[in-house]
Design goal:
Number of helices: 7
Largest sheet: 2 strands, antiparallel
CATH topology: Arc Repressor Mutant, subunit A
Structural class: mainly alpha
Order of helices and strands: HHHHEEHHH
Number of domains: 1
CATH superfamily: Winged helix-like DNA-binding domain superfamily/Winged helix DNA-binding domain
């Protein structure tokens, strides 16, 4: 595998930001976190990403304060990932990239409101899935 050149020594803030969030999968992981994905296995299945790549990207995003590892909401032994304030500050970046991609790659116009509505819907769906999984776990353990 070819090692990428680090932009860390450059004075350009875009280059320095790309050192942190510019690797393949990183912004998709952040998008999933905005949509409410919290567990390793959920990131893995929703993105179709290899475990070793996901592990490396989560470690880097955590190391740089974009995500933080927290105890599972259900009190289990598993840890989850959530966006930090620094990670949440990437929302305008994701929105701008989504607007650009929709127009110039997919050939369709969307609005910021469309993107925010989609985010709310994805969060709702993930919360419902999480609740259903908790109920199933309770039934199995009963």
């Amino acid at each position: 595998m070819v090692k990428r050149k680090s932009f860390g020594d450059m004075e350009c803030s875009i280059a320095k930001a790309l050192d942190i969030i510019g690797e393949w999968w990183s912004l998709l992981i952040v998008r999933e976190a905005f949509w409410g994905t919290r567990r390793f296995g959920d990131f893995e299945s929703r993105l179709g990403i290899a475990r070793n790549i996901l592990t490396a990207r989560l470690a880097k995003l955590t190391e740089h304060g974009i995500l933080q590892r927290v105890p599972g909401q259900d009190g289990s032994k598993y840890h989850e990932y959530e966006l930090t304030e620094k990670g949440q500050a990437l929302a305008p970046v994701l929105i701008a990239l989504s607007l650009w991609g929709s127009k110039w790659v997919n050939g369709r116009e969307v609005t910021t409101q469309d993107i925010l509505d989609r985010t709310r819907e994805e969060r709702r769906l993930r919360a419902e899935e999480s609740q259903s999984a908790k109920l199933a776990d309770k039934r199995r353990s009963a």
